[in-house]
Amino acid sequence: MKICIFWHRRDLRIHDNAGLAAALASGLPVVPLFIYDSDILDCLPDKADARLTFIYDEVERLARQTQAAGGTFLARYGKPVKVLEQLVKEFDVAAVHTNEDYEPYATRRDGEVGEMLGRHSVDFYLYKDQVIFAKNEIMTKSGTVPKVFGAYHKAYLDRLTDDMLLPYGSADAFTKTNLAALAADKAGPRPTLESMGFVRKEQYVPTADLPAEAVVRNYHKTRNTPALQNGSTRISVQLRFGTLSVRQVVRQARALNPKLLAEISWRDFFMMLLWHFPFTATEAYDPKMRHIPYRNNEKEFRAWCEGRTGYPLVDAGMRELNATGYLPNRVRIATAGFLVKHLFIDWRWGEKYFADKLLDYELANNVGNWQWMAGTGAVAAPWFRVYSPQSQLEKVDPELEYVKRWVPELGTPAYPAPIFEHKFARERAVEAIRTARNAAS
Ligand SMILES: Cc1cc2nc3c(=O)[nH]c(=O)nc-3n(C[C@H](O)[C@H](O)[C@H](O)COP(=O)(O)OP(=O)(O)OC[C@H]3O[C@@H](n4cnc5c(N)ncnc54)[C@H](O)[C@@H]3O)c2cc1C
């Protein structure tokens, strides 16, 4: 039987899935596939990783849904190019369909996969699914990459139409007629967490439903109050793994809250920037910011990681991150700003720590925001801006409700004194950056 494969990656859903809809409409029976990428899993430092557990559960859910619809779901562990090559040898595969991924590793991998499939005369189709505008769909009037968010967002709003947000009909077409049923011995067993060398770790993730209407309507008033459990939408994990469709989310935000729509478009913006400038995953965009003499003190870094800096908002944030894998945006700003300016530690150390801990960790958003905070990015806060952690606390948590939740010993002798005085640390960082920038130019 001639089949086509739909390869799920960051789109762990059947509904409103661009690539899946195209595969189901192609006229060939579809076999959905997920590959646990050994190149990525080998880099996970912790064998109890809540993100892998989340992915595993979602893949198993997709497998059950596929089976219930009369099809066969394949799951494999290994290097994607090798797994796919093996599959095209085992089955009569005419085409592989998948959704685009804009990260440097993913674009390289997809290039190799495309070449390999070409050698076997198998077609490879990629679709835009995880963003509204990708790659160079929004450019400046002079044809350059937009680096001012305000102008980008204006173009985003001008170009956004109802049609772009229509759901793809993948769920309706997900039927026995369009799916391939393979013999059980041909499909093979699906990997388990244990067979991949991992153990189960569950952390709370809000469900894949759209956020409640009241949360969305109030978003601009509540988003900067970390004490509120529903101050923001909490959709980041679902967007990261594609259990929610970005079109669904944008439709709701567009109808109810322009501020939320603007925040969601930062996601497209950062993915677009990383696609154009893949080197920024590990290097400052701004050449003048590439040789900053960061202090990189290991002991102070550990104090930051463990929430022992003596600055309550920073400490509460790091403890929340360590305990839950989540951090409200305002507290991400406070903790990141403190690391790169007050402790004067390389933003890449913080980016890596967040990457290990955040359930919603996403390369483009994490790097984009860290480079913003450090003043090094294609879009960046002014390098001389240093937020006072104390003033931020007074602004966002005046009753200390949030910080007391995570730092119960606050106000007792058990709580450490501030690691550095704010004014001293600010002047130290600003002077060192100024000197390095002058030397670079
Ligand atoms: C230092 C730092 C690191 C960050 N790392 C990540 C990360 O790894 N993954 C991640 O998804 N977000 C990251 N963010 C952005 C933002 O903090 C989170 O998306 C947000 O807190 C998630 O909670 P929410 O879903 O309730 O967001 P809401 O405020 O309800 O926003 C809705 C959605 O819009 C998008 N969004 C909102 N703010 C931003 C932003 N500043 N940049 C990009 N997208 C945004 C997200 O997809 C988010 O889920 C980071 C921010 C900072 C300052």
UniProtKB/TrEMBL annotation:
Keyword Cytoplasm: no
Positions contributing to FAD binding: Y219, S232, T233, R234, I235, S236, E263, I264, S265, W266, R267, D268, F269, F270
Cofactor section: FAD; (6R)-5,10-methylene-5,6,7,8-tetrahydrofolate
Residues in Photolyase/cryptochrome alpha/beta domain copies: 2-132
InterPro entries associated with the record: Crypto/Photolyase_FAD-like_sf, Crypto/Photolyase_N_sf, Cryptochr/Photolyase_FAD-bd, Cryptochrome/DNA_photolyase_1, DNA_photolyase_1_CS_C, DNA_photolyase_N, Rossmann-like_a/b/a_fold
Gene Ontology biological-process annotations: nucleobase-containing compound metabolic process; response to light stimulus; response to stress
SUPFAM superfamilies: Cryptochrome/photolyase FAD-binding domain, Cryptochrome/photolyase, N-terminal domain
Keyword Lipid biosynthesis attached: no
Entry GO MF terms: deoxyribodipyrimidine photo-lyase activity; DNA binding; FAD binding
Cofactor details (free text): Binds 1 FAD per subunit.
Keywords from the UniProt entry: Chromophore, FAD, Flavoprotein
Pfam families per record: DNA_photolyase, FAD_binding_7
Record family assignment: Belongs to the DNA photolyase family.
Descriptive protein name: Deoxyribodipyrimidine photo-lyase
Organism: Hymenobacter properus
